[in-house]
């Protein structure tokens, strides 16, 4: 049996009910305030949200595992995938058949290799002569570029290292360009200062000549001390 609500004035009359009834009658408390005080949030709502968050995290973890497995399968597809394994088996079978044919014709091949091939022509039908001309042109072009192609193939494993070295060289070049710009700015400033000093030298010499003529001795100014000393040494 549910216990009576002491804050409900409609329940059995008790002290709290009488006080609330008096407050309601006087207008200090209204029914809406009492209804708000009755509404209490369930403590199980947070537990439900926590359970939902846990389920979502578990699902995300499971999806990440599936993605990792798919990446691993993609990386190892050429080793474990049946399609690629079938291709490799077919290639190996073709090589095996070719080697068996070579071994069967070993005696005739040895005799043919020992026989000189000088002044012998391969019989080709006239219909295929124009194709042979084009084929020879392609063969000559291929032989000319063979060394370049082989060098490119040799450099493929070192491509990452070469790119890294190139990036380092570019970074050093940027630093050198910055230093060169700073040096150029310093040279321009120094040249401007030298021009200012050069323009002041005739005036300083004229003033010193005037002072020597009239036997006037004045201490050298801080910014003209070096020029004054150099002028005296020159004299």
TrEMBL record:
Coiled coil: none annotated. One of its GO terms (biological process) is centrosome cycle. InterPro entries: HAUS2, HAUS2_metazoa. One of its GO terms (cellular component) is HAUS complex. It comes from the Eukaryota. Pfam families: HAUS2. This is HAUS augmin-like complex subunit 2. The gene is LOC113219519.
